[in-house]
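Task 17 of the worksheet. Students: predict the tertiary structure of the chain below and write it out as structure tokens. Keep your answer in the requested format; marks are given for formatting as well as content.
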Amino acid sequence: MNNNADIAVITETWLHDDIDSNMIEIAEYMLFRLDRGGQLQGGVAVYVKSGIPCIHLSHLTQDNLEVMWLLYRPHTMPREIPHLLICAVYFPPKANSYEMIDYLISSLDTVTHSHPCAGILLLGDFNQLPDAQLKSFPLQQIVTSTSATRGTSCFLLVSNIAIARGQSLGSCNDLVATGNQPTSTSQVS
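Model answer:
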């Protein structure tokens, strides 16, 4: 990772049990992965820079959904936001949207009750998932571009975090990539 990112979320990894994590290891990063069971395609993976406290919230994992929750505590967080809850999502185009929305809302309720001051980042490929209920949680959509190749919505939603041009939660400059077109976000971390 040449850009020195703290977190990288990857969707549609196509990983499976026969691919050992050592084969996709990146030096100085911890790998968290959730493979699609029994099928090719799909899956999510998150790389987190070594030395930054991060815990996989495995109790929120549901077998038939490609969603992984992490509790992340970078060293440069403001006092108002003690840590971040990162949710990596891959929602396949023909999947059950009611099931995914119900799961995400239920999980958001669970994590916000146990971590009321945490920032929440939902990242990934949401394809055609209706997002009105997610935005009413409240979540603010940051990236609104679509994939140039498929016309699908791949976006980042943020809750409990005030982000404005020139503001920063930490000291990182990040690039949020959606589909084929990267979207620069000024000082988001």
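Marker's comment: The longest helix spans residues 97-114. Residues 89 and 108 are 13 Å apart (CA to CA).
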